[in-house]
Amino acid sequence: MAPKDENSVKLFLSIGLDEKTATTTINNPKVTANLTAVIHEAGVTDGCDRTTGNLLYTVATKHHSNLRLHRPTLFDYIVSSKIKTPAQLDAAVSFFDKNSPEDFKLNEFEEACGVGVEVSAEDIEKAAEEVFEEHKSAILEQRYRTNVGQLLGHVRKSLPWADPKIVKDVIDRKMYELLGEKTAADNEKPTKKKEKKEKPAAKAEEKKAAVEATPEPSEEELNPYSIFPQPEQNLMVHTEVFYSDGSVLKCNNKKEVLDKHLKVTGGKVYTRFPPEPNGYLHIGHAKAMFVDFGLAKERGGCCYLRYDDTNPEAEKKEYINHIEEIVSWMGWEPFKITYTSDYFQELYDLAVELIRRGHAYVDHQNADEIKEYREKKMNSPWRDRPIEESLRLFDDMRRGKIEEGKATLRMKQDMQNDNCNMYDLIAYRIKFTPHPHAGDKWCIYPSYDFAHCTVDSLENITHSLCTLEFETRRASYYWLLHSLDLYMPYVWEYSRLNITNTVMSKRKLNYIVTNNHVDGWDDPRLLTLAGLRRRGVTPTAINAFVRGMGITRSDGSMIHVSRLEHHIREELNKTAPRTMVVLNPLKVVITNLESDKVIELDAKRWPDAQNDDPSAFYKVPFSRVVYIDQSDFRMKDSKDYYGLAPGKSVLLRYGFPIKCTNVVFADDNETIREIHAEYDPEKKTKPKGVLHWVAESSPGKEPIKVEVRLFEKLFNSENPAELNDDWLTDINPNSKVVVSDAYAVSILKDAAVGDRFQFERLGYFAVDKDSEPGKLVFNRTVTLRDSYGKGGK
């Protein structure tokens, strides 16, 4: 790290930023400059507390450009802790947006953003108590179907400056105190009830009140693609390249160039999804697909699937096939499938033209020398060699006359620039490696920095969309297109998708796959799209999750995996039929039922099944021997326990109440071998506990056995990348638990690979590809409990 960068990191750490945020920030020169200026203007160069630092960071990254006139006032309030929450900061920014400095009134400003208002934990507790008291009857009736968001809204209405996280924790605790543990009924989809007809006037008033209470969604929420300009607007200055000599290059399309482009495209939107075929796609690529394919679809345009195959050593046919197949599975249809290697001749010709124009040269520095010269901002000794000499040497490179590593073609940019992506980037390097798509025609290959923007231009891409780590490459992107007088696409960067308890670096994914820390690229514990599919996740759920993230530029945020799980449950709750499986069977003998008697019962495939719809039910046998889960029996009963215990009754789901009358132990007098119970054929008893179960279909015939794989988070830490070289030690050794001898109801015997079910009281499961005739294997997709909102962003 350069001394200048080290000083910036030290400065950013002093205001309470974590090390990852600080080091990520310095990769973006614009944000680095903004934050440095904010710290100096706020007078906290010697450091400050983390709360103050986070607010200053928000100003630098989110509100930098529209607060210049008001910044002295704002910084004074932040540093003095008069403004100390994001809600207060947002309110202050909103106030400044509506008021010029001449109209500024201190008392109105302080009132608008809650200055001096202290909200204690006791205040929140009291407000929540009042809300629960007012809505108690409705909460008891709706139980865990209660709209918690409305309860939060009631508390926040009376305490607008309360910490929303504390409010949410208090609401969750009070829900639990009032209702206790969730029951099986709480997890069922509610049956729709016919509404009573109301008087027209009353209904109109209610509708009016509901409309007034519901905030209007923003245009961006309704259509995340509304932020992007139309192709015909692409005459704007895309970026400004600041040279070290003080000159500025303003990059934009000339009218004749844009007119030519629009004539070719017919004015349509053209995008591209450009994965490198060096591994399997992960959920971050799902966001890229949503942005690239989604924009083209929304605007009635075209999206290429373009393989960025400039590195022949890392690419495999397996990955190419996988990418095409998974794109289709995700619901996207490419306008055309292309390869960067399709354009190798055009790219070579453009490289020759770049040399002719004096903007590229053949260099003989090795990798270490290039690194050293870049760190010192020194020009290569071969930078100013004659154009004819570079043309001859580049031709020698193409003909294989120069050894690998002995020469590169470099772009002649600006070695003294503040942006390291202008340090004479490599355009071509020599590799005597056959190409998976182009064969052995070439022994020189273009770099990403040379090929990406030029192929975008050759394919007439209107919107070149990528993640924020590429923002600093904008200067190089437009410098090259400007130097060759090529059409310039509109470039826009969005935040990459970071999810907790996993890794999404292709290098790390490749390592844990090739070193057998997981069971292949499609291991259900991975957030590869193949792994998610094998786990039972639907593309609908993935796309809904990605859409919920939006297409924003707020980088560095870590999305809690529970947010993804929430969308998975939402989808599977609607599409996965219900059934029953017992993971750890405990034998229960129904002593008052004849040994040869079997009663056929109707079980629901769907919680809201109508009685007149036979397809919504399946048959389950109730016989003298049934099995419940070992976890549903205790020798000692307690008030908050709803399972079976000696002398206690429970209801078997869709069946009868049973009462434990005896417990039979094994020879060690500790292990329970079986339970004896009596059933209530009249169903007169009304126990609180409801258990899932599986029975013998006929005397002595065991239920079908299945293997069930229970998956947990692959990494213990939310952000294993922060552990640097120790990240592998964070792998959760219990991330996969295999239950080999679970019992299932007979309806599952015909399940096919990929079929999804809800195992009642257990979660959602899908049939795995390892299934064989007579031995089905199920992967747990997600548990029933939804912790979204409790674990993080």
From TrEMBL:
Residue ranges of the region described as Disordered: 182-223
Transmembrane segments: none
The family this protein is said to belong to: Belongs to the class-I aminoacyl-tRNA synthetase family.
InterPro entries linked to this entry: aa-tRNA-synth_I_CS (IPR001412), Gln-tRNA-synth (IPR004514), Gln-tRNA-synth_Ib_RNA-bd_2 (IPR007638), Gln-tRNA-synth_Ib_RNA-bd_N (IPR007639), Gln-tRNA-synth_Ib_RNA-bd_N_1 (IPR042558), Gln-tRNA-synth_Ib_RNA-bd_N_2 (IPR042559), Gln/Glu-tRNA_Ligase (IPR050132), Glu/Gln-tRNA-synth (IPR000924)
Domain named Glutamyl/glutaminyl-tRNA synthetase class Ib catalytic: residues: 268-573
Superkingdom classification of source: Eukaryota
E.C. numbers: 6.1.1.18
Lineage of source species: Eukaryota, Viridiplantae, Streptophyta, Embryophyta, Tracheophyta
Pfam families according to UniProt: tRNA-synt_1c, tRNA-synt_1c_C, tRNA-synt_1c_C2, tRNA_synt_1c_R1, tRNA_synt_1c_R2
Keyword ATP-binding set for record: yes
Record SUPFAM superfamilies: Nucleotidylyl transferase, Ribosomal protein L25-like
GO CC term (a single one): cytosol
Domain tRNA synthetases class I (E and Q) anti-codon binding: from-to ranges: 690-768
Limits of the Glutamyl/glutaminyl-tRNA synthetase class Ib anti-codon binding domain: 576-680
Keywords attached to this entry: Aminoacyl-tRNA synthetase, ATP-binding, Ligase, Nucleotide-binding, Protein biosynthesis
GO biological process, one term: glutaminyl-tRNA aminoacylation
Residue stretches of biased makeup (Basic and acidic residues): 197-210
Segment forming the signal sequence: none
PROSITE patterns per record: AA_TRNA_LIGASE_I
Name assigned to this protein: glutamine--tRNA ligase
GO molecular function: ATP binding; glutamine-tRNA ligase activity
Reaction catalyzed: tRNA(Gln) + L-glutamine + ATP = L-glutaminyl-tRNA(Gln) + AMP + diphosphate
Glutaminyl-tRNA synthetase class Ib non-specific RNA-binding domain location: 7-164, 167-246
